[in-house]
Write a structure and sequence with these properties.
Elements lengths: L7 H27 L10 H9 L14 E10 L15 E11 L14 E7 L7 E6 L9 H11 L10 H10 L4 H9 L11 E2 L4 E4 L5 E10 L16 H12 L2 E9 L19 E14 L19 E3 L3 H37 L1
Antiparallel strand pairs: 1-2, 1-9, 2-3, 3-4, 5-7, 6-7, 6-10, 7-8, 8-9
């Protein structure tokens, strides 16, 4: 019988971690390549995620939207989009999903109510050819239209290392140099955060194509529109750093939280490749169905914790537009996923080695 000694266990563990890390690196590199990151663009996914994570790395967490809460439930399709897309998710019926509500920022312990942006992400038909991943935010449009300009926007908004505060002059200069930010700034000036994750409206921001059985395509954007009003939700404890999470948990345990997924159809006057321009309210809107949230879990325990909500993972019957920001999102998501997944594996290996050492003492 072969006896595994204390000195052998760490070697085996490290080998496994290295192998897994290498596999993830190959996957991430392939994702970055096909997302167009290695095609001479000024900004790489690595540089972009470096800027997002800031000077303090929170190992094992997302580099953006680090703080979140897992949710689950069903997408109840009306079937009304089936004339525009062959995707099975849009056929009338119910499909399970896992999702995540989050706030902007790289700090997993940040106060919920201090974040300027909130997000809703979900995935249906996980690990199948019909998988659909969605990542939405509260702004309806982007401030800029290219990855390079977005990178510069983040630089302008980043706190000065010496003071720890943002530089108003730098921010003003950036937006003055980017008149395409007009619609975004108008939204920002009039936006008041809702008192609940459950009563926010979330937007796809970028446009996508739906493909029907005849091979025709239709550009669309969509919104997750809440069914509940502010006065219907549970009381918000504004003194708690986890106010939004606590309230959502309380609400889900009381009754399901619902959002209608409303798709706006572009016409020939709309540019689906420019995320800075809002489409007119006169465009046709179709209610594709409802997200019905019935369960929740903490992100370090729930299924959403390890999920990469890359919006470029689309089912048959959908495809990405040529929007440069949309194309870059997949690369940044992959880079963030690779980093946190590798950190998680290394931490598990370290814990395992320490446990093996303790057991042999």
């Amino acid at each position: 019988m072969i006896k595994v000694t204390r000195s052998n266990k760490p070697a085996i563990s490290v080998f496994r971690v290295c192998a897994l890390a290498a596999s993830m690196s190959v996957f991430a590199t392939a994702t970055l390549y096909f997302a167009g990151v290695f095609n001479g663009d000024k900004v790489t996914a690595q540089a972009f995620v470096d800027l997002q994570q800031g000077s303090t790395v929170h190992a094992g967490f997302r580099r953006a939207h680090a703080k979140g809460l897992c949710v689950s439930g069903n997408f109840e399709s009306t079937g009304l989009l089936s004339a525009y897309s062959t995707a099975t998710v849009f056929k009338q019926g119910s499909t399970p999903f896992i999702g995540r509500f989050s706030i902007a920022g790289n700090n997993p312990t940040a106060p919920d109510l201090k974040a300027p942006v909130r997000s809703l992400a979900f995935v249906v038909n996980t690990a199948t050819e019909d998988e659909w991943r969605v990542a939405m935010n509260t702004p309806p449009v982007m401030a800029v239209a290219t990855p390079d300009a977005f990178y510069k926007q983040l630089q302008a908004l980043s706190p000065d290392p010496a003071t720890g505060k943002r530089d108003p002059a730098k921010i003003s200069a950036f937006f003055k140099a980017h008149p395409e930010s007009k619609a975004f700034n108008q939204w920002k000036a009039g936006y008041t955060p809702a008192n609940s994750f459950a009563t926010e409206q979330y937007n796809s921001i970028n446009a996508f194509y739906l493909h029907n059985a005849q091979g025709e395509k239709q550009a669309v954007r969509w919104q997750a529109v809440p069914s509940m009003s502010e006065h219907e939700v549970a009381v918000l404890d504004k003194q708690s750093p986890d106010a939004l999470q606590q309230q959502l948990i309380s609400q889900i345990e009381k009754q399901p939280v619902r959002f209608d997924l409303k798709f706006t159809l572009a016409d020939s006057n709309d540019d689906e490749n420019n995320p800075t321009i809002p489409w007119p309210s006169s465009r046709e809107v179709i209610n594709a169905g409802s997200l019905v949230i019935t369960g929740w879990g903490f992100q370090n325990e729930g299924a959403c914790g390890a999920q990469n909500f890359d919006p470029l993972v689309l089912p048959k019957g959908m495809s990405a537009t040529a929007d440069p920001i949309l194309r870059a999102r997949g690369a940044a998501y992959a880079q963030s996923y690779r980093r946190r997944a590798t950190e998680t594996l290394l931490n598990k290996s370290k814990t395992s080695q320490e446990g093996a050492g303790d057991a042999s003492n």
